[in-house]
Amino acid sequence: MMRNKDRLYEKIREINEREQNVVLSLVCGSQIVAIHFEKGMLSAANSNNPQFRLGVYMKEAGIINESSLAQLVKEARRQRMFVGQIAVKKSLIDIDTLVELVQEQAVQILMHVLQENYEIRSVGKQLLEFYIPARIDLPHLLLLVARKTLSAFPIAPNQMVVLKDTSSLSHLPWYPEELAVMGLLKNPRRLREVQSMTGLDESQMEKILSVFNTLELIEVVDAPTEDTTAIVRREGFPFDALVPQIPLSNVSWEMESFLNVNSFVSEQFKTLKVRMAAIANERPAKVITVTSPDSQAGKSLLCANLAAVYSRDPERKTIIIDCDFRKPSLHNIVGASVEPGLIGFLQDDRLQSFCYMRRLENLYLMTAGGRASDPIELLSLDKMRNFIEFLRSEFNTIILDAPPLSPISDAHILAGFSDGVILVVRSGKTSYASIERAARNLDPARVFGVVLNDVPPLMFNTEYDPSYYGETGAYPYGDESAPSGRRLKNYLEI
Description:
single chain, Rossmann fold, 3 domains
């Protein structure tokens, strides 16, 4: 006889596979829960139980106190907006953290439903639109639940652990620590060996193995009875198997050359790529730093779209890295969270770089990983230089999205790591004085060229939006009013 828990999972699986827009209503006595789905993905969950309201999670995370929460709820009702939307508007929280809270709310409600044995009451049409949907498919949901329901994973000293299969793991948003363990468990290993190679403590290892075991990703095998003297071949970079993929539905419309390969905008980036190829015939052009004389020139959008065009080439492995620790923006363009990213990799000596990467089809990327109080010190580390040299051996094209040249000097450090620099100038925005200053500060021999951005379209190119490549964002460099990027602790940090 099928239990309520099994019925619920089966119904969620059916909704997910059919990509339905529905609301699933569940009841247990007087308690009511509504789980909302958009195109089969869990977008939100709410309950008439006040302990599961989003504001409660914001308070528990230390984002607001009780009095501030009451004021926030009052203002949300007055403006007919969501509590999370008001919190973002008032700069109390950033988008990434709000997404985490919405997902946490949905998972906690689901776990409560499973524990209390709720029954399915009805499946109706989804009529609501949410400010920030959770966007959780069934595999992601199972991962989140596994992280909340940890259990012991017994293993004898003479046994080893190995991944069953890595072919279907990259679609999930793994933490760097989880990816590091996966990378090692492609071959059978003893736990003490994995722990030594990753630097994870015993508690973290137990939690990760519990999650893998719940998801049936690992198995225990007996260790060899005798030591072997066979030579073990060095394994290559586990790109496709492990680096998490970003859902295409998350990608911003601004990434035109990725979403619409035949558009007028895409053709302009293809032309830029051809001109870069001509330069590469004369001198190295593998590592490219993209910067601008000052802010809001559209360099980050140019970086992302140029990288997307490069990634379309067969046999070309391309990566883009957001090196702007003051005002990161790549994550917004590609639809990813700002963490994990470059900052985490530079500050952590335990884990390999692939643990901090993600990808869009064939385009690999590393977001900034947040904001840093000491960006120049981080970029000046030998680890950063060594990282770029490592990427040269693994990728055909490496694009570094650097901060503007003025008023900071981060871009000069990145220019020293690269083969050359592309300077982005925005028509009608960048002043002649800024351009002259940039020209004096850059070595002319290292400048690949200048891209004039935001040029008014010709008469027949009416589909082009002249404001399209202007960098948006309300927070210029040095503006302390920008959201701090408060991050919730994950299950390995508790």
